[in-house]
Design brief:
Oligomer: single chain
Radius of gyration: 17 Å
Bound molecules: zinc ion
Distance between the termini: 42 Å
Strand order of the largest sheet: 1-2
Helix content: 25-40%
CATH class: Mainly Alpha
Number of strands: 2
Strand content: 5-15%
Largest sheet: 2 strands, antiparallel
CATH architecture: Orthogonal Bundle
Order of helices and strands: HHEEHH
């Protein structure tokens, strides 16, 4: 989609303007010392898999001060966040909602307790 590319371009320019940079190795070591999401504090193991199977990990690279608000891309402004926190934060960035501790995960769990699919369909 064109608008996605447009957004990515705008973002890349912001990052450039805000300054700062980090190496992939720095991110890797930060991640290695982050057993949990920096925002909600859940350990990676309990975070549900991402809806898009192309992404194999629940963690994402998050900016403590969002790029949108002038945050730099320096490693000191980066933290490991689960995708749920990161995406929620980005969605709220425009209205400048405070980035506080996240609400406990939505009640997605329920489905997992269901017996095999068969039971639900056959009637
Ligand atoms: Zn989180």
């Amino acid at each position: 989609m064109d608008c996605r590319n447009q957004r990515a371009k705008v973002r890349a320019e912001r990052i450039k303007k805000n300054g700062g940079s980090h190496k992939n190795a720095e991110w890797k070591s930060l991640l290695a010392s982050s057993p949990t999401c920096a925002v909600c504090g859940r350990s990676w193991a309990v975070i549900p898999p991402r809806p898009d199977p192309r992404y194999k990990h629940p963690w994402t690279k998050g900016h403590k001060t969002p790029i949108y608000h002038g945050g730099s891309d320096d490693i000191s402004n980066i933290q490991a966040e689960c995708y749920e926190c990161n995406f929620r934060k980005n969605a709220g960035a425009l209205s400048r909602s405070p980035v506080g501790p996240a609400k406990p995960a939505h009640k997605l769990k329920k489905e997992n307790n269901m017996p095999a699919t068969q039971e639900r369909i056959s009637r």
